[in-house]
Amino acid sequence: MRRNVSVSEICNSMGLSYVGQDAEMNGLNLCNRASEHTRILTYVTSAEYVETVQKNPAIVGIVLKKEDLEVYQSLEKAWTFIVCESPEEVFYGIHAYLYNATDFYDKYEFPVKIGENCTIHSTAVVEDGVIIGNSVTIGANTVIRRGTVIGDYCTIGCNTTIGSEGFQIIKLNGRNHRISHCGETLLGERVIVGDNVTICISLFEGAVRIGCDTMIDNLAYVGHNVCIGENAVITAGTILCGSSVVEDGAWVGSNSCVLNRVTVGEQAKVGIGSVVTRDVPEKSLAYGVPARPRKEII
After folding, report:
1. At what angle do helices 7-14 and 87-101 cross, to 10 degrees?
2. Its pTM surpasses 0.85
3. Do the beta carbons of residue 158 and residue 197 sit within 8 Å?
4. Which residues pair with 198 in a beta bridge?
5. Could you say which DSSP state residue 168 is in?
6. Distance, C-alpha 28 to centroid of its chain
7. Contact 283, 267 (CB under 8 A)
8. Other C-beta atoms within 10 Å of 119: how many?
9. Catalytic residues
């Protein structure tokens, strides 16, 4: 993994042009997301993101339209600008180029590492680039994909996929395109995952994280960039959309959906069949469509 690339390399390889310094970057991400990297490339589709960009210290390069260049240049930061007609398309094209044609992203190509006293069903598939701790049990027909780390004493059920490709879609020329995901999936110790569960990897960086002693019931879906704390309970049929957060000790009831970037607070509970569109405060019970906090949990 190289984890740095110059703007000139990107532009020369893809027939693009840039304004400003020839900056080096060690990550890509959306402008409104915190990054684990210190020098990232992002994109904007209009001038309305000026304040968001200005508040993100990790940004060093921006893909934008020519008509927006002057606005962002006026902020007097030493950014590099890749100027084009369709910033979203170009940004994800850069992402695809870096993923497919360079070593910018980690490909997790090392041989699988399996700890002691593990019970892995003969029909399970464990790819290279996986690390499995001690005393882990994996059921029939389960797939553990590259970039997954499973802690000690975890139990994974049957027909489950850990490290699945996430679901990030953009529309180009009237057609849907799915974006390649590059991150990891990390399970802490003593996590239990049921049957027919899908847990995705993260999109550009970092990991989907499942904390120690968390339990995930059958038929649940955990989207990209999701973070689940310790001792949480995710019951059957739950959908956790991308970048949602379930904090320590929270409980999400069956057939509920937590929308993108929504947080279920510590020790909170979500009732059965709820659609969680707003953050749920800690130690509160929320339910309904849309879910609303109903009372404090003592």
Report:
1. 100
2. yes
3. no
4. 161, 221
5. -
6. 13
7. yes
8. 11
9. 224
